[in-house]
Amino acid sequence: MLQEIIANIFSGKMRFTLSSIGIGWGVLILVVLIGVGKGLEDGIFNLFKGFAVNSIYVLASKTTLPYRGNPAGQQILFAEDDLDMLKNNIPSIISISPEASTYQNVSTGDLSADYEIKGVYPEYFNMKLLETGSGRTLNHLDESGQRKVILIGSNVAEMFFDGSDPVGKHLTVGNNVYMVVGVIRNTLLNNTEERQIYMPYSVHSTTFGFAGKFPILAFTYSEKSDFNVIKQRFKEFMGRKYHFSPQDDRAFFFSSVEEQVKAFNSLFDTIKTFLWFIGISTLVGGVIGVANIMYASARERTYEIGIRKAVGARKSEIRWMFIGESVITTFFAGMAGMALGFAILKTIGIFIDPDKMLLEKPGLNLVTSAMTMLILMICGTLAGLRPAIYATNLQPIDSLRKES
Q1: Nearest-5° angle of CA 341, CA 6, CA 318?
Q2: Rounded to the nearest 5 degrees, what angle is found at the Cα of 196, between the Cα atoms of 191 and 200?
Q3: What is residue 404's predicted lDDT score, i.e. its pLDDT?
Q4: What is the phi/psi pair of residue 142, to 5°?
């Protein structure tokens, strides 16, 4: 039967070619859409690799509810002892750091420019996972010893050091001289950091004032903890200390990396469903074309079917002859479309630089390939059903009379 199916395919090369085009094109579109969509998904989620997933950033704002005689509109700022209080009373918190910020003039020699200067604890780099191109990040000795050291972004390094390694060299920030201990590597994951300068919080708070107050803190928490429970306990302890309602949802703004990852996962699940729908819809068009061509072939072979039945061919043999031809045609056309789609994805990947684009090199994974092959088999079977049913229901005498 397999030999006969292959012989029938080669005897109708034009029919096979026309059938293959629709299926191959459908698979090609499906493969390219899914591959590019996967590259975009990987590119987006790579951005989150710059942050610990179990980290939360908290921005202090103003109260919006009156509470025990205190009017609404009270400005809240964090103090350094708040960090110890929160860590001691919320066991889920692993590490915590302030983020104090100010703009200062930075200079060396005849060059000067204004940059944002952030004061943080060394634990801050457990939340924002910055990579250094040279040198190191800030450590506990910098903080406890109030060392006048800074970690700078790549733009700052290019501005003042013109391609030479800045580590060990000095910059004037405001009225004080600081030694550069590291340069943040410029990638897509941290390109917002290229104009940042970090220094120990102990130095920042004593140098630039603000009475030890800051509007932002960040912390990491244990993976098994519930973000909403932590948020509620945070508001309760802070409300008790600063005398505002723990039910005031506008006093703090919480940004959870884990919650953002979940939101993007949901978004990309929807996008992938849509891309599969578009790809399969295109493939269905090809399947309909194969089914019509195979049906026309079955009608042309009415006399042959009559002869086969007259000499004893069973209905199952006639049925599987057409289904087998459809499956084989669909399989080889789909494989050709998949190979061409894979080649297109590889070509696209040549022009993609993950460090500069919000897109990873697209490709196919094993699950997608297996699902595509399964869909091809199903499509091939469906495409052969109509001609198979037509051929099976033909009566030998009617087939021979019709041909004569």
Answers
A1: 115
A2: 130
A3: 47
A4: -60, -40
CA–CA separation, 284 vs 378, rounded Å? 11
- DSSP class per residue in 248-308: -TTSEEEEEHHHHHHHHHHHHHHHHHHHHHHHHHHHHHHHHHHHHHHHHHHHHTHHHHHHH
CB atoms within 10 A of CB 162: 9
Give the C-alpha distances (Å, rounded to integers) separating 315 from 127, 166, 320, 390: 69, 83, 9, 11
- Is pLDDT at 107 greater than 90 in this prediction? yes
- Average model confidence (pLDDT) for the chain? 83
Q: Per the structure block, which two tokens stand in for 323?
A: 């289904």
DSSP characters for 118-176?
EEE-GGGGGTB-PPEEEE----HHHHHTT--EEEE-HHHHHHHHTTS--TT-EEEETTE
To which H or E segment does residue 15 belong?
A: helix 13-47
Position 287, amino acid: V
Q: What is the SS3 assignment for 233?
A: helix
Residue among 91, 207, 89 at smallest CA distance from 148: 207
328-346 per-position pLDDT tens digit: 777 888 888 888 988 998 8
**Other residues' Cβ atoms within 10 Å of the Cβ of residue 328:** 18
Which DSSP symbol is given to 385? Answer: H
181 phi, psi to nearest 5 deg: -110, -10
Residue 365's H or E segment, with its range, is none
Structure tokens given for 216 = 């932002």
- Residues in Cβ contact with 39 at an 8 Å cutoff, skipping those fewer than 6 apart: 348, 349, 352, 359, 360, 361, 362, 363
DSSP string, 143-156: HHTT--EEEE-HHH
With DSSP H G I counted as helix, E B as strand and the rest as coil, what are the percentages for the chain, rounded to 5?
A: 60, 20, 25
> Is residue 197 helix, strand or coil?
strand
Cα–Cα dist 106/88, whole Å: 38
pTM of the model: 0.69
**Rounded Cα distance, 348 and 343, in Å:** 9
How many CA within 13 A on the CB side of residue 204? 27
Query: Identity (one letter) of the amino acid at 187?
Result: T
Looking at 166-232, which runs of residues are DSSP E strands?
Answer: 170-173, 176-184, 196-200, 213-214, 216-221
